[in-house]
């Protein structure tokens, strides 16, 4: 059975590029256009990994990570931040919120897939 990964980013083109890479590697993909949209779509189904941007309208990625970690069904779901932010302070905020990894855009698909394979829940 395919593992499900949620991509959360306000850029439709970035979601598309990530989705193509993930689907090509056999994953199922859910998409959210911002943190609030992603939370609405987390309805108890199994999500093996979340990949999220940091800077988004309505709800930023770090706020979303905290909200996801507060949901019992997703408390242990690994979250990767995929963002243009590379400052140490932002990374620490993300880690404190519960993010497992931090990748800086632009990313290359093989690198992303390597991180996904390491972190995706069994």
Structure, described:
The chain has five helices and five strands. By secondary structure, it is of the alpha/beta class. It has a single domain (4-119), classed as Response regulator (Rossmann fold). Strands 2-1-3-4-5 form a five-stranded parallel beta sheet, sandwiched between helices. The termini are close together. It has helices spanning 12-24, 35-41, 61-69, 88-97, 109-119, and strands spanning 4-8, 28-32, 49-52, 79-83, 101-104.
What amount of the residues lies in strands? 15-25%
Could you say how many structural domains there are in total? 1
| Shape summary | globular
Q: Could you describe the largest sheet, including whether it forms a barrel?
A: 5 strands, parallel
What is the CATH fold-level name?
Rossmann fold
Helix and strand string, N-terminal first? EHEHEHEHEH
Mean pLDDT: 96
Low-confidence stretches: none
Distance between the termini: 11 Å
CATH homologous superfamily assignment: Response regulator
């Amino acid at each position: 059975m395919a593992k499900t990964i949620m991509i959360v980013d306000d850029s439709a083109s970035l979601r598309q590029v990530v989705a193509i890479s993930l689907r090509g590697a056999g994953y199922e993909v859910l998409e959210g256009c911002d943190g609030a949209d992603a939370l609405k779509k987390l309805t108890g189904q199994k999500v093996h990994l979340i990949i999220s941007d940091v800077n988004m309208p309505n709800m930023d990625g770090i706020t979303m990570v905290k909200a996801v970690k507060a949901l019992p069904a997703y408390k242990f779901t690994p979250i990767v931040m995929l963002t243009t932010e590379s400052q140490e302070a932002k990374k620490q905020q993300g880690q404190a919120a519960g993010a497992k990894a931090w990748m800086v855009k632009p990313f290359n698909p093989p690198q992303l897939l390597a991180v996904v394979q390491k972190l995706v829940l069994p």
